[in-house]
Amino acid sequence: MVPKTDTQTSQEGRRRKSAKPTLRTIAELTGLAVTTVSRALADDPLINIDTRRRIHQAAADVGYMPDRAAQRLKTGRTNVVGVLLDPHEEILGFGTSLMLGLTQALAGTPYHLIVMPSFVKSSNVEAVDYIIRNNLADGLIFTRTEPLDPRVRLLIEKDFPFVTHGRSEFSTPHPYVDFDSFAFAYEAARRLLAKGRSRLTIILPPRNLTFSQHMRHGFMTAIREAGASFEISEDLDLDSPAGAIRNHFRERAGLNDPPDGLICPGEVSALAALAGLGEAGLTLGREFDMVAKQTSRLLSDIQPGIETIYEDLTAAGEQLGKLLLRRIGGEAANTLQILQPPQPSFGTTAD
Fold it and tell me: What positions does the domain HTH lacI-type occupy (predicted)?
């Protein structure tokens, strides 16, 4: 059989897009054997590189996708990465940014994503167990970890590849990507103290989450070093509605000794607190100052007076994806741990 030219292959490929393409489709288009096509699509180094490129191009022209059921039977793998994603409405663009980074990490690999919602009031152990028992993915990523997270315990026991966005306190190491919340709170407090503020407050994440402990520790370390006054409301946390945060700070401003330095771990809480204090007649930069964690351009564009520290969620998503691929490949868990340092962006827009 005489191999067809690239032009003939491309023209025939466009005509055949209406039918579901198979290996045989590509073989007929290229004039090559089905076994050769299969090996080329698997990037068998014994197949000439030019032949591999031509077959990959033909597959792309006809929209060929491998039969996942057949692949699973043959290799035991799904070529799927599962993501349990918390909407995390307080952090603007949280899910979108993480997914963008994950997509970049998986580009050019055979892996695809399935996304399942993760709800704030549930640890989603059942969802994790369902994925494992039904072999729905080769690896799993999830967010908002707890110190003794039951999802982490289950996945370690099952020896199932996973990476968390956040840390836990298990003695057995596991892969993670985390933002250094201790450093964020510590540096934010030091910045406010350097501006002459003497009574600080911070909005913390929910107490059951690991990064709440890290953030509290960083804040209190800076407070103790400076001998400054502070208060932490037990009625508010990062998941509180924006209206509740606004009302709290409006009412607190009318009482004795209100805080003059605020730390907010997200843009929504920062804007809500700013609104409440503004309604009470207080002005940013005069009666109080604020440092907030920024994950978008919102604060820098709308309120440049709020000083910010940047968390790169897209980079975190890409790191999560790359670590998971390495874990699926058999790399040891204790080599797959990344702690992202805060990126100061005081008074500027983070790139």
Answer: 21-75
